[in-house]
Design goal:
The structure is a homodimer of 385-residue chains. With 385 residues, chain A is an alpha/beta fold. The first copy, chain A, has three domains: 73 residues, Arc Repressor Mutant, subunit A (Orthogonal Bundle); 134 residues, Nucleotidyltransferase, domain 5 (2-Layer Sandwich); 143 residues, ATPase, nucleotide binding domain (Nucleotidyltransferase, domain 5). Chain A is built from 13 helices and 15 strands. Chain A has a five-stranded mixed sheet with strand order 6-5-4-7-10. The longest helix of chain A is centred in the last third of the chain and has 26 residues. The radius of gyration of chain A is 24 Å and the shape is elongated. The interface between A and B is large, with 63 and 65 residues.
Chain lengths: 385, 385
């Protein structure tokens, strides 16, 4: 049992720092008097804490406005959180493309850069494309690599807590890859590795279709389908990081793979070829009979997978994404069928983040990491609302 | 933003009370000196808190042992938590049976009582059987109704946060029943209502097959199948309380209901007749060909449902229960098939709590409620480990 009363001066200092930082981050800038009022701390405590934060570079004194300086002999000093004191990267390592997105410590996006990669590229080539995308993005934004505070990276596959890809059949040489360790060689800051659908769920909650929901399933409806879930606003990874890997489910009920379902010929589509998929959806919309039948088969499969997730988890909202085009045709059938089969059907929405969804989620995970460091004590105290 | 420093005397007193109660509950009895050492509180604080707890009846001074009294002029006073200061009930409202289990404040079971009820009984009759079981149990145990501190009750169906059965097709007149409110008329203490599979998951985690796991799916493999999940040791109810209601899933992949799957004739079994099910399992074990085929069909269906849950949630452990007999025959096929389809197959175990599993879980939910009241502040402080 821990000691619950009495004083640990360094813990108290950390709590107070956190409280002040939190207050400053929620506003443009504030005077010491304002901080004292908002935080409930004493004036001397606030003065000490702010001085310490200025020392770390996370807080800076704003130059007094000319007008204010003239009106009063000595204007109140104003302080602000320096979002530019550090930077974050979100990385999406996909089958056809690698993407890097850069932000400041407030998560404000400063730039994005994608590079194509062939789906058959070996792991080394794929990682090299990613490194080159990152280098170009940092150079264009004029941000030093040493300014990075955290990097989030997302890829298909089951990702272990140590950043190793436990199973990843969607990308060549991916299973067993120590992705976290490999990426860490390029950065001096922490690297957080996550499954792509999990990252996408986080992104939708942050700035997509799920900003008002804490219980969300994101379905990455690609040819290597997966899902990510938030429960009570937190990512549900599962015991072994495999939660939501529903791609295997169709093996149980039926034999067809999505490549076969979506084919308009006797041959299945090339694996992971999302361009071919887009064409089938377009064909169905033009009225092509075979394309229409293919899309219907695919939607039936999607309904089955999503229903399994919904029955297991009972989310408030299901967000469908992962492809740029075509998915809107699946929305109505999905809503209709879920209402038939689910005891409490969830809302169903399309992703609003498009192709950026996975990189955006990876960026948010990096931001979460930094915020947890900065605001750890605060979260502890308010964990139970 | 809340005020994080400074003193709230009543909160501090409550924290200290909680700490002392927690320490006393973890031991048989303790002296003030021992409490002071374990809690890190000052001697005068401990004295004041213990005096207050004695006043509430939750703590009592132990009579000094004869020997100890003689050896020293004035032996140290010893105090203990009075588990008998209050009582708890766990209720299982099933299709064929209602069960009540009684415990003290430590969750030690003092008695159990079941009454049969016909599956077609209207809600009023079912509740009356339950009331009569409770009255008889309290009378036999010599426990006054006024001593009850909390009641947990579990039944099939989707149970809303307000204790109303949102959907319950397994029991007549169950959908829409304000079960919590109805039960509350018989008790002056809080009544917590929960889905039966959810309660069973809690029971397995408390004292069944899942005591060493925090990520568990319990599959109630009855004719009205359902599942309950613990994620990180906490019950996952879902946004609308419908999580794990996988009974609907087979509607998607196939048309057969379990009553039809398990039939050895052209007619399905009577709905919810678990005795008929037990006979089919026994027949299969004796080598009856039609019974064997029926069990195989049922296991195939079970595998499909469980696989959907496992792919969605990725638990560490799946516990199968809900029937007294036959399920052990399903265990090996289930393990084999899950290993084929799941990327990270979980362990699979049989319930060790038998028919008591749901009532035991309901009791634990009542105990959780009381502990949350007694130890609320403690949980707040240690919520983030």
């Amino acid at each position: 049992m821990g000691r619950l009363t009495g004083g640990d001066p360094s813990l108290l200092r950390r709590i107070n720092s956190t409280v002040v930082l939190h207050a400053l981050r929620a506003t443009d800038c504030a005077t010491l008097t304002e901080i004292t009022r908002v935080t409930g701390l004493s004036r001397p405590t606030v003065e000490g804490v702010v001085e310490g934060l200025v020392g770390t570079g996370l807080v800076v004194e704003q130059a007094a406005e000319e007008g204010a300086a003239r009106r009063q002999g000595r204007p109140a000093r104003r302080f602000r959180f320096r979002a530019e004191a550090g930077h974050l990267l979100g990385l999406d390592i996909g089958a056809h493309r690698v993407t890097a997105v850069l932000s400041d410590l407030d998560g404000r996006v400063l730039g994005t850069l994608s590079k194509d990669v062939t789906e058959t590229a070996p792991a080394e080539i794929r990682l090299e494309r990613l490194r080159s995308a990152v280098a170009e993005l940092l150079r264009r934004a004029g941000v030093a690599r040493s300014s990075l505070r955290a990097v989030g990276a997302a890829s298909p596959g089951i990702v272990g807590a140590d950043g190793t890809v436990r199973l990843g059949t969607a990308l060549p040489q991916w299973t067993g890859l120590r992705l976290g360790e490999r990426l860490s060689r390029s950065f001096r800051c922490p690297v957080i590795v996550e499954n792509d659908a999990n990252a996408a769920a986080v992104a939708e909650h942050w700035k997509g279709s799920a900003t008002d929901c804490d219980d969300v399933v994101f379905v990455l409806a690609g040819l290597s389908p997966g899902a990510g879930s938030l429960i009570g606003g937190r990512l549900h990874r599962g015991y072994g990081g495999a939660a939501g890997e529903i791609g295997a489910l169709h093996l149980l009920g039926r034999e067809a793979k999505p490549e076969a379902l979506l084919s308009t010929t006797d041959e299945p589509l090339p694996p992971l070829d999302e361009r071919a998929v887009t064409e089938v959806f377009a064909g169905a919309r033009r009225g092509d009979r075979r394309a229409r039948a293919a899309v219907d088969r695919f939607v039936e499969r999607l309904v089955h997978d999503v229903a399994a997730l919904v029955l297991a988890l009972d989310p408030e909202l299901v967000v469908i994404g992962g492809w740029a085009a075509g998915l809107e045709d699946a929305l109505e059938p999905l809503r209709r069928e879920l209402a038939r089969y689910c005891l409490r059907p969830p809302r169903v929405a399309l992703s609003t983040l498009g192709e950026a969804v996975v990189a955006t989620g990876a960026l948010r995970l990096a931001l979460d990491h930094v915020e947890e460091e900065l605001f750890a004590v605060e979260s502890t105290v308010t964990a139970r609302r």
